[in-house]
Amino acid sequence: MHEILSFDRRKCKVLNGPTATGQQCPEGWTVYTKPGPTFKGAPGLSTDMLYLTNIDHHDALGLGRDVLLAGDFNADSFFVVMPQNGRMQTLTLRVPYPLGFSARHAAGRIDDPGAGWKGRGIWSSYSMYTPWHQEGGKGTRPKVVKFQVRPSPVAK
Questions:
Q1: Distances (CA, A) of 7 to 52, 78, 97, 99
Q2: 138 in a structural domain
Q3: Which of 24-28, 70-74, 114-118, 146-150 has the least mean pLDDT?
Q4: What's the distance, CA 37 to chain centroid?
Q5: How far apart are CA 86 and CA 133, in angstroms?
Q6: Model's pTM, two decimal places?
């Protein structure tokens, strides 16, 4: 399974002193597992591979500051870990078929801070080494995709 790990030292019971053995603090770790398909006969082995990890420090996507985005190399999505109501939640941002998408990198951009969700977004390319294997075949070039999150599905 592919996971994102988070470590919070504040959760550690022993930080120093004679009982601090130098061992890692197991209570400080939180694991976020990416849902998705697994190999036949190996339920713990995901077919997806999380590739570069990006942090949206400036809320360019609209999900909040310091949201983590992990590109999924073998799928058409970004795996997102974000704070929500005091807890971390996960979300999958997907590019619909038939476009195809292999996330490589994400770059946030806020063009108009006063325009709400319309003035901001995350851009990503699927600059894979063999773009002709994507939909379209020989001659297909890498593309750039823009992700925007509306406050509601009917927001204009």
A1: 19, 21, 35, 36
A2: yes
A3: 70-74
A4: 17
A5: 42
A6: 0.72
Close Cβ partners of 64 (under 8 Å, ≥ 6 residues apart): 82, 83, 84
- Say what the pLDDT of residue 33 is: 79
Q: Which domain holds residue 105?
A: 3-147
- In angstroms and rounded to an integer, the radius of gyration of the C-alpha atoms of the chain is 19
Whole-number pLDDT of residue 100: 65
Q: How many domains are contained in the chain?
A: 1
Query: Strand 3-7 relative to strand 77-84: parallel, antiparallel, unpaired?
Result: unpaired
Per the document, the length of the chain is: 156
Within a domain: residue 134?
yes
Q: What integer pLDDT is reported at residue 132 of this predicted model?
A: 63
- Distance separating alpha carbons of residues 46 and 33, to the nearest angstrom: 10
Encode pLDDT of 37-89 as tens digits: 888 998 877 777 777 788 999 999 988 888 888 877 767 778 888 877 767 78
